[in-house]
UniProtKB/TrEMBL annotation:
Pfam families assigned: Hemerythrin
Record's protein name: Hemerythrin-like domain-containing protein
Hemerythrin-like domain location: 40-157
Naturally occurring in which organism (per UniProt): Morchella conica CCBAS932
Domain of life of the organism encoding this protein: Eukaryota
Coiled-coil spans in chain: none
Length: 256
């Protein structure tokens, strides 16, 4: 049954950087590579929604809310770094080892490097930003320097995973992705990047097809949704979703 909600009344985090359509919609929903690529799509959309939320709201944050916005923007970067570090430490090397194809994932690593300078500028700016020094216009300018390249990389990685199906006799892609997910999840902070993840997962996306993502015991997810967003709760006012995963108006979002 599709999940339906009234939805946000202001501009929302599905742009300006476009979300990724999952292979699950049109592909073989029983194929392990379609499922793996779909799970990666959903994680990537968590990153894209957060970036869109920051980009849209940065010029409109009120002085009294700036400290919390800075916290949200830092949580986004922390989540992105954990994800890409997990790929480079666990996911890519394992695929190369199992397929026996040297450099098979080098293109993805090169794409990481392509937006690294812009992301470094983002981290340096937000790492030293204070409510008094913060400029929304400057943050938007920095995101403009790498946002499109980052978005393209996140999109390009999905067909790369699908193409690995030609090596299905050599590896269990579900196990490989599960191991990478465990590696990344172990690095998340319960007070920062866990609530960031929770409040950037849209349970209504693609008519609610992925409302049970991520694949974890229901009790664990329920406890995380109930408790994690209580920490630094001012940050998540800028998030695109409520703690139950339903899309909501972001605090400083402009009108449609």
């Amino acid at each position: 049954m599709a999940v339906t909600v009234a939805g946000p009344t202001k501009k929302w985090a599905d742009g300006p950087f476009p979300l990724i359509k999952t292979p699950f919609v049109d592909g073989d929903r029983k194929d392990d590579y379609v499922l793996a690529a779909t799970q990666m799509s959903l994680v990537h959309n968590v990153i894209i929604r957060g970036l869109n939320a920051i980009y849209l709201q940065a010029p409109h944050v009120l002085p009294a809310d700036t400290a919390d916005f800075i916290g949200y923007a830092r949580a986004w970067s922390d989540f992105l770094h954990i994800h890409h570090a997990g790929e480079e430490a666990a996911f890519f090397p394992t695929i190369e080892q199992l397929t026996g194809v040297p450099g098979i994932m080098d293109g993805n690593i090169q794409q990481h490097e392509a937006f690294s300078a812009g992301l470094k500028a983002y981290d340096e700016y937000m790492g030293t930003a204070t409510p008094e020094s913060f400029s929304g216009a400057r943050l938007v300018e920095i995101i403009d320097s790498f946002g499109q390249v980052l978005g393209q990389h996140l999109d390009d990685e999905i067909p790369t995973i699908l193409a690995l199906a030609q090596h299905r006799d050599k590896m269990d892609i579900s196990k490989v992705l599960e191991d990478e997910a465990k590696h990344s999840m172990s690095k998340l902070g319960f007070k920062t990047t866990v609530p960031y993840l929770i409040t950037a997962l849209d349970v209504t996306f693609e008519e609610g097809l992925h409302r049970d993502f991520p694949p974890a015991p229901g009790l664990i997810k329920a406890v995380a949704r109930a408790l994690a967003p209580r920490f630094n709760k001012g940050y998540w006012r800028f998030a695109p979703c409520a703690k139950d995963g339903s899309p909501k108006d972001m605090l400083a979002a402009p009108e449609k």
